[in-house]
């Protein structure tokens, strides 16, 4: 996409909505292991933020904004998700993908709950984000 065909209004909206959509995706990610949400839907929301940026600007600017190649996001997410499954095996001899919970006291926030389902969801988040952005960049390259 070239910048001459995009709307100034779309560019302003994209700059405004991108951080809000990314923040909402983190919210969905963090609440997903207890309530509806999780890594998949959070990854889709984050991908939609970058899709909006891609439509408003161009693929090169969006790639710079992400900062990593999409394949690294997919590979890293897959590695994180797989490793989260081994924590229960290593810690207590439980089956693969057994949930393990840690409770950490954070001054000012209280007790923070960290778990292997959350780590798994972070991996899924990165895989979905990497897959969708790879698809979007491939489609944008076809247009050029």
TrEMBL record:
Q: How does it sit in the membrane?
A: Multi-pass membrane protein
Which residues constitute the signal peptide according to the record?
none
Coarse class of the protein's main subcellular location? membrane
What keywords tag this UniProt record? Cell membrane, Membrane, Transmembrane, Transmembrane helix
GO CC, one annotated term: plasma membrane
The organism's superkingdom is given as Bacteria
**Which family, according to UniProt?**
Belongs to the CPA3 antiporters (TC 2.A.63) subunit B family.
> NCBIfam families per the record?
PRK12509.1 (NF009163)
Q: What is this protein called?
A: Na+/H+ antiporter subunit B
């Amino acid at each position: 996409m070239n910048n001459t065909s995009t709307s100034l209004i779309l560019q302003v909206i994209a700059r405004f909505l991108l951080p809000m959509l990314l923040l909402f995706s983190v919210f969905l990610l963090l609440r997903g292991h207890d309530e509806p949400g999780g890594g998949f839907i959070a990854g889709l929301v984050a991908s939609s933020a970058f899709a909006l940026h891609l439509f408003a600007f161009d693929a090169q600017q969006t790639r710079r904004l992400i900062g990593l190649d999409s394949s690294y996001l997919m590979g890293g997410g897959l590695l994180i998700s797989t490793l989260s499954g081994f924590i229960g095996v290593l810690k207590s001899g439980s089956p693969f993908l057994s949930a393990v919970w840690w409770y950490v006291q954070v001054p000012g926030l209280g007790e923070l709950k960290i778990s292997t389902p959350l780590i798994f969801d972070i991996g899924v988040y990165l895989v979905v984000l990497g897959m969708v952005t790879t698809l979007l960049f491939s489609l944008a390259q076809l247009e050029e």
